[in-house]
UniProtKB/TrEMBL annotation:
<dbReference type="InterPro" id="IPR027417">
    <property type="entry name" value="P-loop_NTPase"/>
</dbReference>
<protein>
    <recommendedName>
        <fullName>Sulfotransferase</fullName>
        <ecNumber>2.8.2.-</ecNumber>
    </recommendedName>
</protein>
<dbReference type="GO" id="GO:0006805">
    <property type="term" value="P:xenobiotic metabolic process"/>
</dbReference>
<dbReference type="GO" id="GO:0005737">
    <property type="term" value="C:cytoplasm"/>
</dbReference>
<dbReference type="InterPro" id="IPR000863">
    <property type="entry name" value="Sulfotransferase_dom"/>
</dbReference>
<keyword id="KW-0808">Transferase</keyword>
<feature type="domain" description="Sulfotransferase">
    <location>
        <begin position="33"/>
        <end position="277"/>
    </location>
</feature>
<comment type="similarity">
    <text>Belongs to the sulfotransferase 1 family.</text>
</comment>
<keyword id="KW-0963">Cytoplasm</keyword>
<dbReference type="Pfam" id="PF00685">
    <property type="entry name" value="Sulfotransfer_1"/>
</dbReference>
<keyword id="KW-0128">Catecholamine metabolism</keyword>
<dbReference type="GO" id="GO:0008146">
    <property type="term" value="F:sulfotransferase activity"/>
</dbReference>
<dbReference type="GO" id="GO:0006584">
    <property type="term" value="P:catecholamine metabolic process"/>
</dbReference>
Length: 285
């Protein structure tokens, strides 16, 4: 049986969305100064960013988020669809990427393009990923939750180890070209975060538009937006009887799934790997 993943420098990328050509396209991509990237480890709020960013950058025009699927609206630069849609995009081009910092295209480093890095509590990332592996037929079955804790800690998951990803982007030498935010901050205060994004991107937004954006980007509204809830994907590819893409949209769901032993082991391993880095571990509660 063909392996479901492509191996890129030790990172697992699902073949359904990546190819040797798409990786070449990514590596040779010419980044423009006004490009904007949202960078995430998988299951950390990518789809959410694909909803928020277009609304900020086009002054609250809701047409794109209601008419264009998220993967074409704000494409993944490393995925096969990027080559198909990127040329048609008008500046500022918005894109997402799951790539670690060191693998970004050379032109990214020499450009003035901005990046927003969204990190999420790794325990909730693991839970979200566990259910995603159950419903996405293009990924390996996750096994039991206990087995998946080990798979996750070993980095045998999409785009490698969570700790490597956050460490690589934390030490990014981008000055004021990068903004760090957490999924948990977005859950707690989406309005404040959207305001931070618009300030960072130099976009003025009226209070009224801000309110509309926040309301449109709520979990419940996004769940009903066919352009963002993955309902366009055939059932054979994403089995919604097993789980949904926009599943719970909360912080702390890990408490419903980790045993005390799993939690202890997981936290110890993550803390050990983050030791010596300047990354806080703001997810203790
Ligand atoms: P859960 O599985 O915990 O619900 P990504 O887009 O990076 O794959 O991340 C998917 C996760 O982000 C899912 O988490 C999904 O529900 C959550 N998400 C997407 N849109 C959201 C929103 N508007 N509010 C809260 N969470 C959201």
């Amino acid at each position: 049986m063909e392996c479901k993943y492509l191996n890129f420098h030790g990172l697992l990328l699902p073949r359904i969305a990546h190819s040797e050509e798409s990786i070449k396209y990514f590596e040779n991509f010419q980044v423009n100064d006004d490009d904007v990237f949202a960078i995430t480890y998988p299951k950390s709020g990518t789809t959410w960013m694909q909803e928020i960013l277009p609304l900020i950058l086009n002054g609250g025009d809701f047409t794109p988020v209601k008419t264009i699927p998220n993967w074409d609206r704000v494409p993944w630069l490393e995925e096969t669809r990027a080559a198909l849609v990127m040329d048609k995009m008008t500046p500022p081009r918005l894109m997402v990427s799951h790539m670690p910092y060191e693998f970004m295209p050379p032109s990214f480093f020499s450009s003035k393009a901005k990046a927003i890095y969204v990190a999420r509590n790794p325990k909730d990332v693991l839970v979200s990923s566990f259910f995603f592996h159950q419903m996405a037929t293009f990924l390996d079955d996750p096994g039991t939750f206990d087995e998946f804790v080990d798979t996750f800690l070993a980095g045998q998951v999409l785009f490698g180890k969570w700790t490597d990803h956050v460490k690589s982007w934390r030490k990014a030498d981008l000055g004021d070209r990068i903004l760090y935010v957490t999924y948990e901050e977005m859950v707690k205060d989406l309005k404040g975060v959207v305001r931070r994004f618009s300030d960072f991107l130099g976009q003025k937004m009226s209070e009224e538009t801000l309110e509309q954006v926040v309301s449109h980007c709520s979990f419940n509204t996004m769940k009903t937006n066919a352009m963002s809830n993955y309902s366009l994907v055939p059932q054979e590819v994403m089995d919604t009887k097993k789980s949904t893409f926009l599943r719970k949209g909360i912080s702390g769901d890990w408490k419903n799934h980790f045993s005390p032993e799993q939690e202890e082991k997981f936290t110890a391993a993550i803390r050990e790997e983050l030791r010596g880095s300047n990354i806080p571990f703001p997810w203790d509660e």
